[in-house]
Specification:
Strand order of the largest sheet: 1-2-5-4-3
Order of helices and strands: HHEEEEE
Distance between the termini: 18 Å
Shape: globular
Structural class: alpha+beta
Helix content: 10-25%
Largest sheet: 5 strands, antiparallel
Radius of gyration: 13 Å
Mean pLDDT: 86
Number of strands: 5
Number of domains: 1
Low-confidence stretches: 104-108
Oligomer: single chain
């Protein structure tokens, strides 16, 4: 559940959130169940070319990562918090258009 300060990733990028959850379920990953409620903190601003979408405050990631594939190619990398219980950022590698700098229209 989000804290109300940030929109849910599933509201900002519904297709992406659904795809991540489906790929995680296919791998038997229990993290599939947290995707629907991940907050969206915006695009990472560490560099002008960073393509990560933050689902936790910057700097929250640990060293664990899940690589999601389609047809043998990595399409999404998920960074996890130090406990490995939630996703802290999402790197979309397949070139899909997420809008300028990873932003999207946020419905009100």
């Amino acid at each position: 559940m989000t804290d109300g300060l940030y929109p849910r990733l599933a509201d900002v990028f519904p297709a992406l959130a659904t795809e991540i959850a489906e790929l995680l379920r296919a791998e038997g990953q229990p993290l599939a169940e947290v995707v629907a409620d991940l907050p969206y903190h915006g695009p990472c601003t560490c560099t002008a070319t960073c393509i990560n979408l933050l689902t936790a405050p910057s700097g929250s990631s640990g060293f664990s990562m899940i690589r999601l594939e389609r047809d043998g190619m990595d399409i999404i990398w998920l960074s996890l918090d130090p406990s490995g219980t939630t996703i802290t950022d999402i790197e979309v590698l397949d070139g899909r258009d997420l809008g300028p700098n990873g932003t999207a229209f946020i419905p009100v």
